Recover the amino acids of this structure.
């Protein structure tokens, strides 16, 4: 296990280097010029001498490989550089933005698990009753409605019609915890609907699969209590694919949070990324990609390790 | 004729407000009367003193300047002198023409206090007061900085940091007298050196200032004494005051700038508000400047500007009460707002959508083809489908209908006439189906909606048009290198003087609207003439010639004036969408207050 | 399952399977949920192919005087903000959505399953390399990937398929990987190995059928979510060009006019939901059919 972890860590570094290179290269080849943004963007047409001067200030006049080596060197020292447009430290800004996105993703994932798994189990257990199709249909509804439709509908109902909750915006929990909760409710629910449905469906089908297996039949025929069969045997085995899906969720939560942040004007890491791409703010885009990639890789790592815990047949040498 | 420009819509009814009544040819007597009633507002002593003098009195100069520059501002029926004599005008507030930039003549004294929660479309990117970052930045820099001269709510040029000025030497010398008692937010006093430093900074090519071309017309400028700046011109430049009143001519502090402070990251102005805490791309707070040089201004305690890029999200924030003022109201929300008595809407048709036609890319190198494309567009239908009928067709050029400068005799030149379009093509041996055009469009809904309408029109005519959708930086890059055939764009006039044509079509026009590959010596000569001519009637005729030459050149497909709308809660007072100034009206939040 | 006789490699595949054509037909008609969901998927495919035959309206033809018409008055489902026929746009949108969804999932399944199975079966170092590539895709922000592809290749149908296809590889690779890992340890695979069956044969005959169930579930989910992803990209302005109708763009555009024209959001949303639903129900049914362990 230890050897596996070490090997995996080395490959992680290689992987990050690969991602860093790809992002750096693609970003610098992307049409558009950060200098134009700094000099006014769509509303201006600066002349070439002004552009050249900005290039010089930002070090963009150097050969690409020099910029690349320079950036990697800083990266190795955990220095993500400064934003081209606001000149603030990318690292510091990430420390401000990332937690906000996590404030959406983590509660949404918790909600998805806390509601999704029991619902899936219920549907599997009540397979022959009307409950299964009802729960499944509800899950499918949540799952098949685009995030921006469910988000907009919730805004329409809860903030514009009923005036219960704000339609968007972020309130720092440190400033006003109640205000933060009110602001977070709609985006968190919107974000959790899809993952909740997939969790429910995965749990259900996985449970059904396990329940059809010989060992369950054996256990049942031996007269083992149905509850023990379900919770001790079926659930444990059924959770393996569910865990896979949860790992994947994080990726899709990040993707989904792009739309949620957009609809609810939530200044998290995705809106930071979108603005940065729109400004061709290279250090910011590169920094976000590296940090997000690191998080994903760690989560996948943990997911893989949890296989070993949940499924004794899998052993990492 | 009257295009309902700048109409305040509230309580479900349309009020045509009194603005526009202050004459562009406001007589000296009327002005004196107005100021006399008010008594000693800031700068008024100077004004009266100057009026009493024998040489070219400031007031006269001011009013004649107004004549020269306000033509571009909207309204149609102007009764000279009426307002000055109207009793309601003057009792409580200083007339806009004297002390309070942007103040309406009819605005009663406001209630101090309150927070303006402002929903911005776009992040201002940076704070440099001399770079054009787009309209949203006007609300930020415009309330922190002041200009030498400014606009009142009718769009007339009025004193600001320069409390008065004289025009001498056959309009080749301007002498500006600075307002006394003005301090920057860091506490240093405003002097003539700061103005000179500002001009230097704008003219320095390294700044990439919006007005670098315009201020290149200055021959010399000196601080005659600590409160006087003398500007010498190579030749008369009738646009100077408009340029100095624009939102890229903010006066900055020399000492502060020379101390190495970065104008892009910090702000130190003389304006009614100071920059408070901010988070780039998210939220900016402006706090009241207690030492502002205009008495009793600003009313507001603070302005909180939140960036909400998504149209629906921004409007939802307004409708749910999280913000009380919102810009860039999409047209689809206009009816809803105008029928709701809890809201006020501020409307102007002062932004226009156009298609750039690259004259370097065949077949668009032939003027006939560019003209034909202009005749192949049903502008009314474009407005109907892309803006729900809320817009006005451009049938001449870029001077808004209703402006003094609008050339009525040219009205209706660009019409929908496919037969004419086809015959124009035949003159160069083409037919509509020969046109295979690529059409670059940014992923901005007001652009892509119009582009789809244009595409549909041209396809109906027989041409093949392929829309290429791009993100904004890609499009901007291609625009700046001329790497496009047709390109959708939306612009606004920089100031209410037809010399703005220079920024679009002048040779080497480096300003924000410059078409990269466009150059016509005839137009250049006419624009030169228009700039140096001081007589307005003659100037107007010159710009008519410019527009006639543009009929031949057809560098754009001129499409429509789109509605530019702000909205506030009904209790907000003191804001108006100033004709000819448009969205830059957001510079004047000093007059805004909330009814309790 | 573990009862396969040692050495009997012909019975590598899980036993008890009668998948003749006639049995499929019987299954299809004998099962209302299969009939409904499968029928709807077939209908979608038919609509996608035959859209021009089903409506005479041009989905892009604008008409200023017929904007926001209510359903029924002109065109079955009314008109949008450009006065375009919503019915026609939904039909043509089906074409785009089906092409995007089927092709993107196709790409993802082929690449993902190959990678996942190979990684599980060959072990180190193949699994390290392959699964790290999967991780790389997974850890790359989808929006950035979409922007890169659109910026370099332009915004077109093919490029949207490429983007979504690449984005979905990890799902299949990981499902295939984890399922194959489990299957790999089964007696019959060990037995097959012991008697020297080739890796390819074991993979195709032994592993693939046994990981089919989770893959099919994933495919059914992905076919639906691919439509949703395309919708999301269109909503952010990163989808196909504006003159190609897609369900995502329909909703995205109509959502701006929810006050004037709620129907504009409702119809395409319902269509998307039903399409995703159909794919899911069909996937479930297929799983039940293919996975003998559930048949009782």
């Amino acid at each position: 296990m230890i050897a596996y972890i070490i090997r995996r860590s080395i490959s992680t570094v290689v992987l990050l280097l690969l991602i860093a290179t790809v992002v750096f290269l693609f970003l610098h080849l992307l049409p558009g010029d950060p200098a134009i943004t700094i000099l006014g963007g769509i509303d201006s047409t600066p002349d070439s001498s002004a552009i050249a001067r900005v290039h010089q200030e930002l070090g963009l006049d150097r050969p690409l490989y020099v910029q690349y080596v320079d950036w990697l060197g800083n990266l190795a020292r955990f220095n993500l550089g400064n934003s081209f447009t606001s000149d603030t430290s990318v690292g510091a800004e990430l420390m401000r933005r990332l937690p906000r996105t996590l404030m959406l993703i983590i509660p949404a994932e918790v909600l998805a698990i806390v509601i999704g798994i029991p619902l899936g189990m219920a549907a599997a257990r009540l397979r022959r009753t009307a409950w299964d199709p009802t729960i499944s249909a509800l899950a499918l509804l949540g799952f098949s409605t685009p995030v921006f439709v469910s988000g907009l509908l919730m805004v329409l109902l809860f903030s514009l019609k009923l005036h219960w909750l704000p339609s968007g915006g972020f309130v720092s929990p440190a400033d006003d915890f109640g205000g933060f909760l009110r602001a977070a409710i709609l985006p968190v629910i919107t974000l959790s609907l899809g993952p909740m449905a997939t969790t429910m469906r995965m749990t259900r089908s996985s449970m059904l699969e396990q329940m059809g297996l010989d060992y369950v039949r054996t256990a049942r025929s031996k007269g083992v209590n149905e509850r023990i069969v379900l919770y001790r045997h079926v659930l444990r085995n059924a959770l393996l694919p569910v865990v896979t899906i949860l790992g994947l969720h994080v990726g899709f939560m990040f993707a989904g949070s792009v739309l949620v942040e957009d609809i609810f004007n939530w200044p998290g890491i995705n809106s930071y990324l979108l603005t940065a791409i729109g400004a061709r703010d290279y250090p910011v885009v590169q920094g976000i990609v590296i940090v997000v990639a690191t998080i994903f890789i760690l989560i996948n790592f943990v997911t893989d390790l949890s296989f070993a815990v949940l499924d004794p047949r899998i052993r990492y040498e | 004729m009257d295009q309902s420009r700048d109409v305040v819509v509230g309580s479900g009814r349309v009020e045509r407000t009194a603005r526009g009544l202050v004459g562009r040819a406001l007589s000296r007597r009327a002005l004196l009367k107005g100021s006399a009633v008010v008594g000693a507002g800031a700068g008024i002593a100077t004004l009266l003193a100057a009026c009493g003098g024998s040489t070219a009195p400031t007031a006269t100069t001011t009013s004649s300047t107004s004549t020269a520059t306000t033509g571009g501002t909207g309204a149609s029926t102007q009764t000279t002198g009426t307002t000055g004599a109207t009793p309601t005008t003057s009792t409580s507030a200083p007339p806009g023409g004297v002390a309070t930039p942007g103040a309406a003549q009819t605005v009663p004294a406001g209630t101090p206090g309150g927070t303006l929660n402002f929903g911005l479309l776009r992040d201002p990117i940076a704070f440099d007061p001399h770079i054009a970052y787009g309209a949203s930045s006007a609300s930020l820099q415009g309330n922190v900085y002041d200009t030498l001269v400014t606009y009142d709510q009718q769009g007339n040029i009025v004193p600001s940091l320069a409390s008065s000025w004289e025009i001498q030497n056959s309009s080749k010398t301007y002498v500006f007298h600075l307002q006394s008692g003005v301090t920057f937010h860091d506490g240093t006093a405003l002097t003539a050196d700061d103005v000179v430093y500002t001009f230097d900074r704008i003219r320095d090519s390294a700044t990439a200032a919006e007005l670098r071309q315009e201020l290149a017309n200055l021959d010399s400028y000196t601080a005659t004494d600590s409160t006087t700046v003398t500007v010498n011109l190579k030749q008369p430049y009738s646009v100077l005051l408009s340029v100095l009143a624009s939102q890229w001519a903010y006066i900055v502090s020399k000492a502060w700038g020379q101390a190495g402070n970065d104008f892009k990251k910090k702000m130190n102005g003389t304006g009614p508000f100071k920059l408070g805490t901010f988070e780039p791309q998210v939220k900016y707070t402006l706090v009241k400047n207690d030492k502002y040089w205009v008495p009793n201004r600003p009313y507001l305690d603070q302005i909180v500007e939140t960036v909400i890029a998504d149209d629906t999200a921004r409007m939802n924030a307004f409708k749910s009460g999280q913000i009380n003022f919102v810009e860039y109201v999409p047209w689809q929300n206009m009816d809803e707002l105008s029928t709701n008595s809890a809201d006020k809407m501020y409307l102007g048709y002062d932004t226009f959508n156009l298609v750039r036609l690259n004259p370097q890319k065949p077949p668009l190198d032939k003027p006939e083809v560019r003209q034909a494309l202009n005749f192949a567009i049903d502008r009314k239908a474009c407005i109907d489908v892309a803006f729900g009928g809320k817009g006005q067709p451009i049938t001449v050029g870029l001077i808004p209908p209703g402006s003094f400068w609008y050339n009525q005799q040219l009205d209706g030149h660009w019409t929908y006439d496919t037969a004419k379009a086809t015959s124009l093509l035949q003159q160069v041996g083409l037919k509509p189906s020969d046109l295979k055009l690529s059409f670059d469009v940014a992923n901005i809904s007001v652009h892509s909606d119009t582009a789809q309408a244009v595409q549909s029109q041209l396809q109906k005519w027989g041409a093949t048009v392929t829309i290429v959708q791009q993100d904004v930086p890609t499009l901007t890059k291609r625009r700046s290198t001329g790497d496009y055939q047709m390109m959708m764009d939306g612009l606004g006039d920089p100031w209410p003087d037809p010399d703005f044509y220079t920024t679009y079509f002048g040779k080497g026009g480096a300003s924000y609207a410059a078409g990269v590959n466009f150059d016509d010596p005839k137009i250049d000569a006419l624009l030169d003439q228009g700039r140096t001519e001081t007589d307005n009637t003659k100037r107007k005729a010159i710009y008519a010639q410019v527009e006639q030459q543009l009929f031949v050149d057809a560098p754009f497909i001129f499409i429509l004036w789109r509605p530019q709308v702000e909205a506030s809660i009904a209790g907000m007072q003191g804001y108006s969408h100033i004709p000819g100034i448009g969205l830059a009206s957001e510079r004047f939040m000093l007059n805004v207050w909330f009814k309790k | 399952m573990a009862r396969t006789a040692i050495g009997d490699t012909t019975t590598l595949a899980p036993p008890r399977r009668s998948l003749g054509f006639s049995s499929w037909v019987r299954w299809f008609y004998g099962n209302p949920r299969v009939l409904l969901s499968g029928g709807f998927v077939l209908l979608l495919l038919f609509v996608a192919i035959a859209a021009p035959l089903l409506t005479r309206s041009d989905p892009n033809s604008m008409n200023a005087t017929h904007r926001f018409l209510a359903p029924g008055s002109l065109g079955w489902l009314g008109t949008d903000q450009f006065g375009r026929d919503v019915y026609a746009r939904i039909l043509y949108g089906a074409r785009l959505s089906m092409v995007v969804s089927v092709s993107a999932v196709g790409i993802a399944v082929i690449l993902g399953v190959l990678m996942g199975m190979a990684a599980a079966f060959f072990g180190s170092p193949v699994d390290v390399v392959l699964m790290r590539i999967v991780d790389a895709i997974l850890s790359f922000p989808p929006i950035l990937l979409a922007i890169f592809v659109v910026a370099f290749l332009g915004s077109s149908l093919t490029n949207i398929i490429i983007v979504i296809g690449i984005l979905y590889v990890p799902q299949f690779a990981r499902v295939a990987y984890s399922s194959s890992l489990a299957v790999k340890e089964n007696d019959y695979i060990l037995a097959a190995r012991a008697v020297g069956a080739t890796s390819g044969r074991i993979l195709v005959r032994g592993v693939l059928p046994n990981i089919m169930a989770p893959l099919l579930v994933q495919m059914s989910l992905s076919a639906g979510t691919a439509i949703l992803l395309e919708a999301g990209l269109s909503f952010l302005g990163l989808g196909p060009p504006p003159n190609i109708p897609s369900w995502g763009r329909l909703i995205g555009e109509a959502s701006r006019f929810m006050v004037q024209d709620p129907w504009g959001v409702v119809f395409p949303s319902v269509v998307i939901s039903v399409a995703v639903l159909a794919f899911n129900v069909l996937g479930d049914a297929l799983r039940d059919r293919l996975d003998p362990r559930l048949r009782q």
The first helix of chain A runs from residue 2 to 29.
